[in-house]
Each structure stands twice: as structure tokens, then as C-alpha cells.
Amino acid sequence: MSPLFQDIAPHALDNQFHGPRVPRPDDYVVIYHDQHVVLDHAQSLPRWAAVGQTFALTPAQTTYLLTIDETAIFLVTAKVTATDRYRYAPVAALRRLTPQWLGFAGATAAQLGWWYTTHRFCSNCGHAYEQDTVERALVCPQCGQKIYPAIAPAIIVAVTHGDQLLLTKFLTGYDKYTLISGYTEIGETLEDTVRREVHEEVGLTVHNVRYYGSQPWAASHALLVGFVADLDQSKPIALELDELSQAKWFHRDELPHDDTTLSLSWTMIEAFRRYEL
């Protein structure tokens, strides 16, 4: 399998909860606001020594998130004013950061940033949440409700028919060909989701559903689980017009190209092109 966005070896990500920490000068900071993060003039994550001074931040305004090797990444949710050196960029820009390990760490941190900023108050009683002291969770001191970071399971499936692969295009948003995908509903297995999504989106049925790989996808707070499935029988595609603009069979030799294989979808497409699926 080609390297994915999360494949950062020899670097190692430690995302275990370690309790409160104070940022060191060389630690990175993710300043998160409304699906945007602050990047410096070099289009990289800023370090605490510089950004803390620029925006008059204090350690009390930071939350420790994770560590890559010996370097920690902290979250700041206070909104800051952009400068010539520091500007907000969409979270998606983190996928283009170099080195790759920093982009992945930043995207993971931004996912936690979204969770912290969208879960400030208890849904049961309305009291402000507090950080748990022993695990990554938020606890309501009023009623005791405890919540954990939200991760949405979703499937992505390569539907094959001999030497052909089915690709689709979304109606809005991402404008390149991709594989059929969708979120798992309550009460479903992942394999059930594969069969349902294929039928809903293109009106086809599949069998021999088998696991390929998985990928954390911070942009949609999802854990993508990749599968390969064989077409039951050849029949016309019935496109779900509310979500898709196109669905088309491609021979291995005619598959479109993309400039990155960091996503699970394009890794699977490239694997099919190389006769690995």
C-alpha cells in the first residue's frame, strides 16, 4: 500500500492524554477558530516562543494535545488578529504542509480543536464543561455528564467489475473523481454500510465485500474504512442526484490521475491501476 497521510514513520505520534502541560519555546501551537488555523509566513505551524509573544498569549490559554517525537503541540482557541507574519488558513491546508508529519499532527490537533470549541456546554444541563483530569474527556461539574472526542465511522469502497472500477463525482465541493463513500448508520456493520451506500448512490448491488485499509480523516472528523466489493451484475447506473453529479466505469488503463496518493481513496484507485486490487 502506498504511504497515506498518517504514515509518518520514523516519526511517532503520541496522542495519549497526559494531563496539563506548559508549552516549551520550540513546541508547536494550533490556533484554531471556525475550521481555520493560524499558519506563519512560511506556511507552517507557528512555535510557542514566537506566536505566544506576538499575540500576548499565556500558558493558561493553551491545552496540551499530543506529541510528535519530543515536540508537543498545544491548542489555543482564543481568536487572534491576523498579521503580516501570521494568517488564518483553512484546516484543509494542513494536508499540504511539509514535512508531512507536521501536517498530519496539525490536522489531528485541529480535529481536537473543533471538538473542544463545539462542546463548551453540557447538553444535559447547560453548565460549562471542564476538562477531565485523568483522560481526554469533558466533564460537567453540575450533573456529571462526561463526553469524549467524536469520531464518525465511514466507509469508502472500490466497486470493481473485472478490469473496471466505478468512480463518482460529488454534486458540490470536491470536484475530482473519487470512490463511493458514506457514513455508517446506527445498527449497521461496516459491510452493511458498503452495500447500502452503493445501492443508494448508484442503484447497484455488490458482493464479496472485503477490507482494504483505514485512515483517520480530520477534515470530517471521520475514521474512513476502505473496502473492495465486486459488482453483482451489470446493469445501468441509477445516479443519486441529490449527492452526485457523475458515476462512471473506468478501465484500469483509463483511470484519471491525481497529484497525491495521501488519501485512502486515491491510494485504492492507484492500487487498482497497478493490478493490486
UniProtKB/TrEMBL annotation:
PANTHER family in the record: NAD(P)H PYROPHOSPHATASE NUDT13, MITOCHONDRIAL, NUCLEOSIDE DIPHOSPHATE-LINKED MOIETY X MOTIF 13
Molecular function terms from GO: hydrolase activity; metal ion binding
NCBIfam families linked to this entry: PRK00241.1 (NF001299)
Keywords annotated in UniProt: Hydrolase, Magnesium, Metal-binding, NAD
EC class: hydrolase
Entry EC number(s): 3.6.1.22
UniProt key word Glycoprotein: no
InterPro entries for the chain: NudC-like_C, NUDIX_hydrolase-like_dom_sf, NUDIX_hydrolase_CS, NUDIX_hydrolase_dom, Znr_NADH_PPase
Source species: Levilactobacillus acidifarinae DSM 19394 = JCM 15949
Cofactor(s) for this UniProt protein: Mg(2+)
Protein name stated in the entry: NAD(+) diphosphatase
The Nudix hydrolase domain, residue ranges: 149-276
Pfam families referenced in this protein's UniProt entry, alphabetically: NUDIX, Zn_ribbon_NUD
